[in-house]
Amino acid sequence: MADLVDPPLVQLLTPEGERVEHPDYRFDGDDEMIAGLYRDLVLTRRIDTEATALQRHGELGIWASLLGQEAAQIGSGRALAPQDFAFPTYREHGVAWCRDVDPMALLRLFRGTDQGTWDPDEHNFGLYTIVIGAQTLHATGYAMGIQRDGAVGTGEAGRDAAVVAYFGDGATSQGDVNEAFVYAAVMNAPVVFFCQNNQWAISEPTTRQTRVPLYQRAAGFGFPGVRVDGNDVLAVHAVTTEALQRAREGSGPSLIEAFTYRMGAHTTTDDPTRYRVSDEVERWKLRDPLERVRAYLRRVHAVDEAFFTDIETEAEAIGERLRADVRALPDPDPTMLFGNVFTEQTSELAAEQAEYAAWSASLESEVVR
Amino acid sequence: MSATTMTMAKALNAGLRRAMDDDAKVVLMGEDIGRLGGVFRITDGLQKDFGDERVIDTPLAESGILGTAVGLALRGYRPVVEIQFDGFVYPAYDQIVSQVAKFRYRSGGRVTMPIVIRIPFGGGIGAVEHHSESPEAQFAHTPGLKVVACSNPRDAYWMIQQAVASPDPVVFLEPKRLYHSTKAEIDVEATPAPLFSSQVVRPGTSATVLAYGPSVSVAMGAADAGVADGLDLEVIDLRTLSPLDLGPVHESVRKTGRAVVVHEAHRNLGMGAEIAARITEECFYSLEAPVLRVGGYDTPYPPSRVEETWLPDLDRVLDAVDRSLAW
Ligand SMILES: Cc1ncc(C[n+]2csc(CCOP(=O)(O)OP(=O)(O)O)c2C)c(N)n1
């Protein structure tokens, strides 16, 4: 896999927690901001491990863990301005956190009580998308809308907007994603394509999707691409900030490849021992996105020890709340089936609903057959 | 007789293995089908035994899977493609309905498309959206495609081999919720029923219940439960949806005078609609009641916590039978 690793990564914080310089990118926040990012990382991981545990206890149907990808998501999610809009896949729990989506909304979806019912416009965060790659076109279209609304290149900080589309390395093989690249390029749309290359698409390594480093694809479509250390929250933040700014100014799309790693299974139904060696996992553990920020904060004495224990307490409280709330979630009323198929109920669906109601009432009166 | 007891998943695996042994031109293609053995493990061990030139882990692109399968078929191969879940066949829909289905016709019969498109279909596994769909009508409505559905390990074993041997494209529907939950003894030397044939799987006299894929076990459950109410239901496993083999169905309906079609797919314009129309045309004077349909409601497949309400179950089948008998 050497050919996919060789190109240099943009890195601003080493796995040992040392700040380093990069000629093109600079993290423009202070230590207080870094401490805030650390809190996001820890709490996001806690939500994720709690969800995994809940699935193991049969409370969720399935869970797609982001373990290992926290920095890619928090770094990019915190680079978004309020007016920017994010289009996620099904794994962007950290970005959802940054957009103030209640984690319970995610858990309800994975429990199977609804299909994602947060208000996209309230959070500027789209609904989770399970069909691989589809959202990259939606993101591009949304960005075209922003252009038409004149919300690009005005120079007004609170007005100019951009869109970010999240997807995985596997998704880059889809026609939709390639079509999104074409549209974004020729329309000069204000969209940032954010690929989390976590090395695997279920059982298939990135080498099954591409022969060139993914960020290099962008050149062929006519926009810039960059590969960033996806486990370095500062570098991801810096690179995404720049790409979003480019988009907001009217300079068009770009592709960010966040080079990271899926530490857990693809989802709770997957068994990674069938296709990958534990060596690899061990090596990536050394690049844990949380550890390096903690090491940095300690090294420069940016925070005191109470800071860490407070966050742990906060994380524990979130975990407890989710556990209790998920267990208390009622199953939906079955008649919810018939709602929201169309804006107005059709007479045919109303008849089906009536048929169902009559039938289920008859069952109750019958007790047992 | 050399019989082995197998799950449906194992039976499909064994059937594919035998098809690959029999014909070196058979190649398998799909996402994660190699080392992982597919997300349902249907191709487990096949890449190890046949190599990665014949069991191809494809990039994550369904249109690509079907489009390149067309090319391989043009070159004399017999691709068997796996679509990971029913809801992910749509990115390949254009290749299937516009290319795979029409090549033979537009080439005046010069070009054949011996492609098998395996799709784990249907619900009942508690999955998130796009993982529980029943797209059969969309393919059965397309001339040039054959569509079959297996309902038990024995058929799975034979039908997959017959589908691979078929010179025409076959959409092969596998009821995913039965993969690991049903077992049967399979005589690997038996002479199987023809691929495109319906089979009476339970003889009876009160009414005819027609089903395919996952609904066959629901229909059988209803027939068993009906005995207590004095019902003697005849159950037919349709097995083939395009072409439909309605000979045994007409014969049965002439005997019982009543028919109920069961499927998970939406009722509106589903397979049941076509079957009801054809029974009415052929058996009008034998019918004691209109042909009734039990299907999924005409809504998108719901969140899993309410899927049991959505899916036709034994009670809904018996309710339809009661309505038929009350006519
Ligand atoms: C169109 C489509 N095909 C197949 C699937 C099944 N599937 C779900 S996730 C996945 C792998 C995705 O890999 P990648 O894009 O790298 O994202 P990751 O899950 O690793 O974040 C596959 C094949 C799907 N959801 N959609």
Characterize the structure shown:
The complex is a heterodimer of chains A (369) and B (327). Chain A is α/β, with parallel strands linked by helices. Chain A contains 14 helices and seven strands. Chain A is globular, with a radius of gyration of 22 Å. In chain B, strands 3-2-4-5-7-6-12 form a seven-stranded mixed sheet, with helices on both faces. Chain B is globular. Helix content of chain B is 35%, strand content 21%. The longest helix of chain B has 15 residues, at 8-22. In chain B, strand 10 (207-211), helix 8 (214-226) and strand 11 (233-237) form a beta-alpha-beta unit. The interface between A and B is large, with 44 and 44 residues. Bound molecules: thiamine diphosphate. Thiamine diphosphate sits between chains A (91, 130-132, 168-171, 196, 198, 200-202, 262, 266) and B (31, 60, 62, 84, 88, 91).
- Write out the strand line-up for the largest beta sheet of chain A, numbering strands in chain order: 1-2-3-7-6
- How far apart the termini of chain B lie comes to 47 Å
What is the count of DSSP helices of chain A, taking H or I runs of 4+ residues?
14
| Gross morphology of chain B | globular
Which residues of chain B form runs of ≥5 with pLDDT under 50?
Answer: none
Rounded to an integer, what's the Rg of chain A over CA atoms? 22 Å
Oligomer: heterodimer
Largest pleated sheet of chain B: 7 strands, mixed
What is the N-to-C order of secondary-structure elements of chain B (H for helix, E for strand)? Answer: EHEHEHEHHEHEHEEEEHEEHEHEHH
Average of the residue pLDDT scores of chain A = 96
Strand content of chain B: 15-25%
Rounded mean pLDDT of chain B is: 97
Major beta-sheet overview of chain A: 5 strands, parallel
Structure ligands: thiamine diphosphate
**Contiguous runs where pLDDT drops below 50 for at least 5 residues of chain A:** none
What Rg of chain B is obtained from the alpha carbons, in whole angstroms? 19 Å
Structural class of chain A: alpha/beta
Count of alpha and pi helical runs of chain B: 12
Q: Summarize the amount of helix of chain B as a percent range.
A: 25-40%
Structural category of chain B is alpha/beta
H/E element order of chain A: HHHEHHHHEHEEEHEHEHHHH
